[in-house]
Amino acid sequence: MYTRTLALLVLMVAIGCPVAAVTITERPDTIMNGQPMYVTIQDLPENASFSLLVQADCAVQPNSEFRFQMSQFVMPFALKQSSITATLSGTSQNRLEVMKESTIVTVSGTSTDGHFSTTKTYDISPGTYDYFRLSGTSLPSRQGITAQLQVTGTKQGPRDSEISFIVEGLTAGTLTLAVLVDGTQVHYKTVPVGGADSSSSATGSGMSITSTAAPPPGQWNTFTSADGMASITVSQTGPVGFLMTPAVNVTPGMRVLSGPYSLVPQDTSFLPPGKIALVIPAGAPSSGLTIASFANGSWTALNSTLTNATVTAPLTRSGTYALIGPAPTRATTVTTMATTVPMTANTTPVSPQTPAPAPPTKAGLESLTLFLAIGTGCAAALRKRE
User: Which domains does the chain have, with CATH numbers?
Assistant: First the structure.
């Protein structure tokens, strides 16, 4: 009786007290170079998929060296099956450095068409990292660069925590923070750096931004992902960020060729409809390709158009998008096994106790004929006597 009552109480509590939603806030609202930034996290479930994007839009001199660094980066929980992705735009040379205690991880490379992207996959442990640093050389034709650092993985650790870091190397521009939990945006905000005015800041997950008084199509804005593989053209003037997310629940028989990209801020409407374009990766077949959107755990193919090396589709809302195509069919090898059927003679078994009769010889046949002739003669003689 006690056990039944306890179970009933637990059920009533579960029904009456729903699971608290994740809450994320950041401070301050504006920041100067050399000041700390704090991201407070509450009610983050265990084993949740967690993605943090920090994007710096920096003013630089053309063809000059730049450095954006997050020093004393405090990571309060672990991320398993995790990765760090760095993407830079408007650059010619690039370098990613991560230092924790005596360990330094460095990745460098040359941009392609002004874009560079690299991903390092490993488990991220909790603790204080000396720095996450993005540096390189800007293009001769650019006076600004975009540097993104994304950390993604499965969270393991305290439910309530705080991420903090010191902004260095960013004297003018904006700093954008976006957080996704299980693929859903729970925080997005753009913070001005160096006292610059930023009227495009937004926060929260339930916001909705709708373009009004759209300018002529020739004056629409184009936003491009830092790796240069995705872009959108919309009438909205506020910034739109691209956040790489894991590909899940891919339709059987299909595969993701580019993306997925989550457009942030989410829950944003684009009216009139804009356009999304995804570049076909080198070497990928161009047949059967389509842009698909991800919502409610499944992918939906959009009305897509193939143009040269890109696939385009109408865009009415922010969300998660990817370029998908048919999965390659594996060649099936059929092996034919040769079967040997034993030949069985159709013979009559002979008992070992009874010797098999020998085939009659010529002499034996003559004796048998003579015996039969004598027997026939005797029978005839007997009939005459009677």
Answer: 19-204 (no CATH), 208-328 (2.60.220.30)
